[in-house]
Amino acid sequence: MEIGVQLDADRTGAEELVALARTADDHGIGIAVVTGRRHADAWAVATWITGVTERIRVGVAPRSEPSDPFDADSAVPAVAEKATATLAALAPDRTLPPGARWTLVDADVEAVRAASGSSIPVVPVHDAEDIARIAPLAAAPGPAAPAGRRRRSALVLAQRVPGIDYDAVPASLADRAVEPGDPEHASVASTYLRGGAPGLVLRPGTVSEVADAIAFARDHPHVPLGIRSAGHGISGRSTNRGGLVISVGSLDGLEVLDEDRRLVRVGPGRTWKRVAESLDPYGWALGSGDYGGVGVGGLATAGGIGLLSRKHGLTIDRLRAVELVLADGTPVRASDTENPDLFWAVRGAGANFGIATAFEFETSVVGQVGWAQLTLVSTDIEQSLHRYGQLAGEAPRDTTVFFVTGRQRDGVWIVSLYAVVDDPDPDVVVDRLTPFLDLGRPVRRQAVLTPYSGVMGNAADIGPEGQRGFGQPVSRSAFVPELTRGFARDAAELLSTGLVYFFELRAMGGAISDVSPDETAFSHRSPRFQATAMSSSDDLLTAEWDRLRPHFDGLYLSFETDRRPERLTDAFPPDVLERLRRLKARYDPDNLFRDNFNIPPAPIAAGTDAASLTEDAA
Amino acid sequence: MNDYGHDLLFGSFPSPVRRPARQAVDLAVASERAGLDLVTFQDHPYHPGFHDTSTLLAYAAAKTRRIALSGNVTSLPLRPPLGLARAAATVDRLSQGRFRLGVGAGASWDGVEAMGGRRLGAGQSISALREAIGIIRDGWDADRPEPLRHEGRFYRVVDGDRGPRPYHPIPIWVGAYKPRMLDLTGAVADGWLPSLEYIEDGLRGITDGNARIDEAAVRAGREPSSVRRMMNFMRTGLGPAGQGFLDGPPEMWIDRLTALALDHGISAFIIGGDDPGLIIRFGAEIAPAVRENVAQARGVRQH
């Protein structure tokens, strides 16, 4: 049985505490928790113990008082966290994981047994005799694992999050479920830009397993719920702390349904890089974003503003049907002819309506494209922005150019342009892109003719260590109807503050605007650009970004981390939101899917049956 | 020409890098094997590539037997003084007197603030350090019966716990460059711990700094020799003569360090760099020769 000893620095000095830890280690006791501070610094003692013993793990009691710079005896919490990480690195497997719970109990067999299972029983010891007395408990067998479940050590079980009923994980999902103490947890905890520590990651591989996962989530309405395809999402909603994540990464197939109609069926977990590779041999492509590491599910339920969009539309514009599992576990199919209202909603607000398990797209015929990455040095960012707006906004449809810059360095801005010209003729490509070289002093010009897979191939493959984001991303999005002089001036001013380390403009228009705004829940069809800004300071960026609002009309939810409720009306104009709320009341009345730009279900009048709510928009 | 007559210390300054995780500990052990007296680590916990130095010091102390250890220098704004005193005393007890407290008023304020520390102006941070040194020594004074109380401009202690008492009187070494910091060093510190590369005017700056510390010490009623003068050297190499003060063949090191000891009163020489070969030769070849030169010269002066 896994038990620990409490070494109390309020009673005993450092040398004696270390001696007790050595004795406990000799007796096969696995854990020492150092508490108190009157006679020694608990962390220094714990650190020393790892240096002079061979096996015993150490931990300290968390400090509960708030950090106060005037209090000469307070601790800076981030420094304490760093200390924990440092010792874990210096002495691997010798520290108590930060999430592991322990309970102080008397040195009594029954008390120890009662405490074990969900936490580590920790027994106070004051001398070697105390340790000898409890040592037999350490040798006793621990509680057995539930039948048919993966065996987990007491230390892993002690890291379970309260409020999650781990023993109720459906049998179909139990084998591949990941808990905080599992070795693979770190590889599934975080997303591309956001650090996370979910309490449980469920990894369904079939439609019925998705339904099982949803049923489990329904029983846990009090913890966050993230839905993940490949975990790239900039806003980071596909992870959380202490909640559930349903990861459909293994639903990653691609199948050609009808070669004449160029119809393909794709799983939500496939990355766009792999989609592009699979479509290459057919001479087809599906416009995605600008990065191959993004998963299909997140993009195809939000919009998909990419490097082929001006020619071929948004990713959702190529969608012909989608299959998803609703909050009540029902698998449904939605298209223009089946559940058309749901089909409308999924294309822009999909995260609120279900977990998609398959997408059917009509691909575009795309041969060799011109793919350019240009780097320019700008001394006048306002002018560069404005000129870019003129060129990119008025370029022919075959040309989509994105503009990226960041902090000023040595008095200049580095501008990167990412451009696709959907034309196999090198002369046309050069013709289209040459005007953009005016935006600054070109320092790198790289242009190739490549299939679209060469454009998506820019993404690094995600290795076994998974996504490695940390902290909370701070990102803002806005649609910019026209790139006016005023916008260029105010954006240049924002960039001059040094607050923004990444700033991007994506050219829209073209085929995106061919689609009527009421065709899909993504209704921003007329803006010429989408702007994204990332910063390390949420408060400061909020203030600066709010100053630019007069230039904006709405936002793209995938790039927005501001969680103030009014952002919802930026993502969805009032009439769209109203329609979405009515549909939400029908498809997810209990608001299970609530963690990504949550659309509150419309209130249901007394005596009205939710299913009878009629859909009168459209 | 100053020589305060301290015994000479030779030390290293490994980077507290996070990867490889144990590199800094290995270099501490290598420093001990090389016969060095001291191993020190810079303290920048907000640097993502670095360890927490406080933890690293305690762990390295547990993995060594003879060598002394110190932060070089500890960032006070992230290490509130009473907790710092307790951790220092704890490691000093466990290591049987091998801990030294190198401390600074704070630098890299953006990093400090990002980690949740308090940002202070230059003048404020010096006043805070002065308060902190008082609290630290009060905390080590474990035999006094009354609880620790302090009500200052920057720190407050309400009925704090004293102790534990360190194994030995832990010297407090201050990283100082500007006049007010040098004044503080002379008035209350046990050592001056700057880096040569950051001293304006190089050797001339050492002379000026020493003079300022001497005056401050005398004003405070202390002997100037109660403040040990130490020096970090960041640019080091044993190749053909390069840019750094200690960047050339061993003979050059020996001559220059001997002169620093005899003419500038420097009695502790701490070299940066993560090259175990350099550490070994510093301990095995250079340190003994400098010790011998200085002992000889001091002997001649005494007669």
What portion of the residues of chain A fall into strands of 2 or more residues?
A: 15-25%
Portion in beta strands of chain B: 15-25%
Structural class of chain B: alpha/beta
CATH architecture of the largest domain in chain A: 2-Layer Sandwich
Number of H- or I-type helical stretches of chain A: 21
- Report the mean per-residue pLDDT of chain A as an integer: 94
Looking at how many chains there are and whether they match, the oligomeric state comes to: heterodimer
Structural class of chain A: alpha/beta
Q: How would you write the strand order of the largest sheet of chain B?
A: 1-2-3-5-8-9-10-13
User: How many distinct helices of chain B?
Assistant: 9
Instruction: Assign a percent range to the helix content of chain B.
Output: 40-55%
**Average pLDDT value of chain B?**
95
Count the E strands of chain B.
Answer: 13
Question: What is the terminal separation of chain B in angstroms?
Answer: 17 Å
Instruction: Name the poorly predicted regions of chain A.
Output: 612-618
CATH topology of the largest domain in chain A: Uridine Diphospho-n-acetylenolpyruvylglucosamine Reductase, domain 3
> What characterizes the major β-sheet of chain A?
7 strands, antiparallel
Can you describe this structure?
- The complex is a heterodimer of chains A (618) and B (303).
- By secondary structure, chain A is an alpha/beta fold.
- Chain A is built from 21 helices and 22 strands.
- In chain A, helix 4 (109-115) links the parallel strand 4 and strand 5.
- In chain A, helix 1 (14-26) crosses helix 2 and helix 14 packs across helix 17.
- Chain A is globular, with a radius of gyration of 28 Å.
- The N and C termini of chain A lie far apart (63 Å).
- Chain B is an alpha/beta fold.
- Chain B has one domain: TIM Barrel.
- Chain B contains nine helices and 13 strands.
- In chain B, strands 1-2-3-5-8-9-10-13 form an eight-stranded parallel β-barrel, surrounded by six helices. A two-stranded antiparallel ribbon of chain B has the order 6-7. In chain B, strands 11-12 form a two-stranded parallel ribbon.
- In chain B, helix 1 (23-33) runs parallel beside helix 9 (276-302) and helix 3 packs across helix 5 (122-140).
- Chain B is globular.
- The model of chain B has no long low-confidence stretch (mean pLDDT 95).
- The interface between A and B is large, with 38 and 45 residues.
- Chain A: Residues 193-366 form the FAD-binding PCMH-type domain.
- Chain A: Its cofactor is FAD.
- Chain A: Belongs to the oxygen-dependent FAD-linked oxidoreductase family.
